[in-house]
Write a structure and sequence with these properties.
It is a single chain. Helices cover 3% and strands 41% of the residues. The protein is mainly beta. A six-stranded mixed beta sheet has the order 2-1-4-9-6-7, with no helix packed on it. The chain starts with 19 loop residues before the first strand and ends with a strand.
Length: 131
């Protein structure tokens, strides 16, 4: 259980307020069995902007009755302020989970539900480094 695990001191993120917070509301199934983030299916042109060097918080708010293993490409994150370092976190039905990461790998990185049948029908977004 992530609540009982801690990141090793050498890889733990500094305890500080995040520079940017992105809320990701997970919902579905919708019409035609769509699964969404923030009410929208995946659009590669509609990302979550961040800047290199920021400490970023993703707040996954699961408003569905399904489990969602949410994955972030290109980074590892720390679950809550002092949890383990991972790249995937299980967000329980009707619950919220926060993860923080250091924006240290510029690019365009997907965050998505690892239930492939959710990701393929819309439950994806892209973390986009901007200048």
């Amino acid at each position: 259980m992530p609540a009982s695990l801690r990141a090793a001191e050498r890889v733990a993120l500094p305890v500080k307020q995040p520079d940017v917070v992105h809320e990701l509301v997970l919902e579905g199934p919708g019409d035609r069995y769509t699964w969404t983030i923030n009410g929208k299916v995946y659009d590669p042109n509609d990302g979550l902007p961040i800047r290199e060097g920021q400490q970023v918080r993703l707040r996954f708010d699961n408003r569905s009755r399904m489990f969602h293993p949410m994955h972030l490409h290109g980074h590892t994150f720390q679950v809550r302020a002092d949890g383990p370092r991972k790249d995937t976190v299980l967000v329980l039905p009707g619950r919220s989970t926060e993860v923080d990461f250091k924006a240290d790998n510029p690019g365009q990185w997907l965050t998505h539900c690892h239930n492939i049948y959710h990701g393929e029908v819309g439950m994806m977004s892209v973390v986009s480094y901007v200048e």
